[in-house]
Amino acid sequence: MINVDDLFDYTSFNIDREPHIVLDAARCGVCTARPCTTTCPARCYTWSEKDRKMTFVFAGCLECGTCYVVCEKRAFTRWRYPRGGFGVSYRMT
After folding, report:
1. 43-85, pLDDT tens digit by residue?
2. Which domains, and CATH codes, for the chain?
3. What b-and-e string marks burial along 48-72, b requiring 16 or more CB atoms within 10 Å of the CB?
4. Which of 3, 7, 31, 40 is the most exposed, having the fewest neighbouring CB atoms within 10 Å of its CB?
5. Alpha helices of 1-93 — where are they, by DSSP H?
6. Given CA atoms 89, 37, 22, 19 in this order, what sign does their dihedral have?
7. Helical spans, DSSP H, in 7-65
8. Which of these, 46, 56, 41, 38, lies nearest to 8 by C-alpha position?
């Protein structure tokens, strides 16, 4: 069995210049639970209490959809898989 943290040893990313996930900052700003920050296995979401702002880094996204499922505010203006040839590639050897 593989640990999620070890998964990055078996993945590669072909990063598109256009993000496949885009957040609505206003919706993130009114969210108090912020489940994306604790459930994303790639830790792509970071909340800054000082700036009252959510930051999302799509370059390390594992495309699992966890954030989409747990987001209570439906804060995505776009959530889709990356264009063909881009995104994460898993190799388990």
Report:
1. 999 999 999 999 999 988 999 999 999 999 999 999 999 988 8
2. 19-83 (3.30.70.20)
3. eeeeeebebebeebbeeebbeeebe
4. 3
5. 25-30, 36-39, 66-70
6. negative
7. 25-30, 36-39
8. 41
